Amino acid sequence: MFHRAAASKSLLRHAVSGRRLASTKTLKEALQEVIPAKQEQLKRIKSEHSQTVVGDVKVENIIGGMRGLKSMLWEASVLDPNEGIRFHGLTIPDCQKQLPAAPGGKEIIAESMLWLLMTGKSPPKPRLPTTLHPMTQLGIGVAALNHDSAFQNAYEKGIKKSDYWTYTLEDCINLIARLPALAARIYRNVYNPGTELRGISKDLDLVGNYTNMLGYGNNKDLTEYLRLYISIHGDHEGGNASAHTAHLVGSTLADPYISYSAALFALAGPLHGLANQEVLRWQLSMQKAMGDKASHDDIKAYLWKTLKSGQVVPGYGHGVLRKSDPRFIALQEFCDTRPDLMASPIINLVKKTYEVAPGVLMEHGKTKNPWPNVDATSGCVLYHYGLREFKYYTVIFGVSRALGALTQLVWARALGLPLERPKSLSMDVLEKIIESA
Ligand SMILES: CC(C)(COP(=O)(O)OP(=O)(O)OC[C@H]1O[C@@H](n2cnc3c(N)ncnc32)[C@H](O)[C@@H]1OP(=O)(O)O)[C@@H](O)C(=O)NCCC(=O)NCCS
């Protein structure tokens, strides 16, 4: 009997120990199969094309936060300005078709997304595990993460460079498995102090356990929503602030716990991960000012008020994308299939805002992308489902982004990528270069 959620969860648990479930590969074995070809590819590119020019460095790149500068390797996903994200070539609808869902659910589970990000392949379907070791449950609950880093431990003892990735993988999988328990504990401590955290259930996937531990296990729709959100938000190429921070810190050979904790601080800024909370705050104040029946003209007036006060319209614009974010569209489609969401005043306000905001932003004429990003809707759906503590929303994003950032850490070690060290210039030096150009 195959059981998809439990199967995927077992993939995570068994990936570390290397134990094999009958007729399946562990994640480590699957990686062992694909790494040599990638290493060869990198060697070939290096030896044959080291001097090939892939773009010019313009002044706008240097003073513009390296925007658009092609200067990083990032294996798991590529972001096209018009089409949006592809994970190893698969669009979000492709992933929704190909990757396993939880039992009774339709949305991608984070374990399948992690497998895809790591290996470039859809996960196999292993057998249902019959036991969940109590020590696994205990380990998941232990929050002293960096304290027992396998990589750090092995590095101190002395390991070969070619073995770095295996210890990194072990840490990354452990961290991903522990994050939901840690994140749920934070939620309980802050918003529901003194309550017991539910134990890990072997019948649930990672997100199913997460919502259960948060105290929303009975809300199947919220769980499905979080499966979709956590999977499709799992990676967005390497240049975004949190992913890049994980990569930069990881390039010093810091262990995955330290590298990802640094990424989480980058995620905490309002131009990045905090945007989902800002969108909700903004839509709620619009709702308060105009009521549930706001007309398109009312919303336009509110948008202009926001812009004229010198603020950005949260949930709109993007550093790379130049069309509506396919993640926004996927979340909208999720709403469209559920009558309660379609009837929700806050979701309707998000929709109506989408109908007018791009026009207003185009007329305003500043942003290069007047279209919505994923955060234009993400927090409002959580709000509708009763998860209303919006300062918590970025924590959920943090659980999700671990999938991509930690995948890249494994690949960076498998490919032996070097310490990141861009060259900085003073304005005087820059002007000299400009003069002689
Ligand atoms: C995401 C974001 C930070 C990208 O920044 P960026 O790459 O510098 O964007 P642009 O190149 O289009 O910015 C050009 C100008 O348009 C402005 N702009 C961009 N998005 C805007 C928005 N949603 N509302 C108002 N103005 C905006 C910028 O502030 C900038 O103004 P400036 O020239 O006075 O500095 C930006 O679009 C933004 O602040 N959006 C709102 C916050 C948000 O939703 N973040 C989540 C992103 S997933």
UniProtKB/TrEMBL annotation:
GO cellular component: mitochondrial matrix
Top-level taxon of the source organism: Eukaryota
Keyword Transit peptide in annotation: yes
Compartments where located: Mitochondrion
MF GO annotations: acyltransferase activity, acyl groups converted into alkyl on transfer
InterPro entries recorded: Citrate_synth-like_lrg_a-sub, Citrate_synth-like_sm_a-sub, Citrate_synthase, Citrate_synthase_AS, Citrate_synthase_sf
UniProt-listed PROSITE patterns: CITRATE_SYNTHASE
Keyword Transferase (UniProt): yes
Keywords assigned: Mitochondrion, Transferase, Transit peptide
Lineage: Eukaryota, Fungi, Dikarya, Basidiomycota, Agaricomycotina
Name under which the protein is recorded: Citrate synthase
Principal location listed in the UniProt entry: mitochondrion
One GO term of the biological process aspect: carbohydrate metabolic process
Cited Gene3D superfamilies: Citrate Synthase, domain 1, Cytochrome P450-Terp, domain 2
Family membership: Belongs to the citrate synthase family.
